[in-house]
Amino acid sequence: MVSEKLYEKMAELVVKKGVNVQKDQPVIINANVHDLEFVKKVVRYAYEAGAKYVTVNWRDTDLDKMAYQYMSKETLSVIPQWRYDKVKYEHDNEACYISIASDKPGAMKDVDSDKINAANVAYYTKMADLISYTANNEGQWCVIGLPSLEWAKVVFPELSDEEAFDKLVEAIFTVTRVTEDNDPIAEWEKHDKEMSEHAAKLNDYDFKELHFTSELGTDLTVGLVNDHIWVGGGCTTPKGIFFDPNMPTEECFCMPLKTGTNGIVHASKPLSYNGKVIEDFWFRFENGKVVDFDAKKEKESLKQLLEFDEGASYLGEVALVPYDSPISRSGILFFNTLYDENAACHLALGRPYPENIKGGVDMNKEELKAHGANDSMQHEDFMFGTREMNIDGIQKDGTVVPVFRNGNFVF
After folding, report:
1. In 74-140, at which residue ranges do the beta strands (DSSP E only) sit?
2. Does 296 have pLDDT greater than 80?
3. Which end is more exposed in the chain, N or C (fewer Cβ atoms within 10 Å of the end residue's Cβ)?
4. Helices (H) and strands (E) in the chain — how many of each?
């Protein structure tokens, strides 16, 4: 039996620390219908924190799947104006966003990839000028995971339903720093402080580029933009509201120079993309762009990812995660990027985060491009960190500084 106390703590954590709801602030929740009871707890804590109103956007994987199966590609490619107007209204009223992930990994594996891709391209094209609200941290947002039986059976297929669910519950709450006998909010305040201190050390070195090697065959050099900023822990809105966008998080992340990546990188974990699981894949980069790739499973989905738009084949993020992070130590492959990216160093194809460059949140798209930033409507993380990964930081004067040895920081 799962303790209700854990769910209460998680709900309180995501409201008070995750998005840090402010008085008279609207709260938008995105959740699956099977998470109704937990969402009720989140809504209650949001109102108790002073939320002006709370709106829940419900979804259901089976209904989504039927839409892709029965609707035409042309219909899926039309995004009605009211959807745009709704989100813009939320932004204009300075809403914060809570997203709860609990869907079954690979749920869309039998769905036509072209339809999924067409729907996503249409949505991000329609919403292009609204993406900056969360990308630039103009408002608070937080993504958390919640255990479900469907997800548990993918992660632990050898166990009974009850055993698999209980094991996933234990894993998710533990790595999110929610336990029976602790204060999760205090734990996260301590964790944010430690992460920010680590990012500060990286900023002091002011590396020109990073060189990655691993036992999988990765041999990759990633250039960094000038005036870059490493970020670890939480984020701050222009109004000074601190929040934690990902729970859990173990990463220090930065902005790559769009044309500065060269070499080959081998993924160390599968990637769940558009409801499909891509396995055993690699990319080869030349002057920042992916020029060759392969995958043992779902290669077509990987191709669609790279062709999403012009910037989708360039990097927007490089993130350092110690191999001995709590998620990595768990030994569990979650098949969910929120968790798996915090078990290993990762890269993201597509859109960068403006906060990773000095003054970036105040720059327009053209100014960011002039500073070497990539531009894309999507942002997709993939993991490449390993037990034996080594990373060297190269400073502007050519000095080589060891950053990782055998998967972990050396400073």
Report:
1. 96-101
2. yes
3. N
4. 14, 21
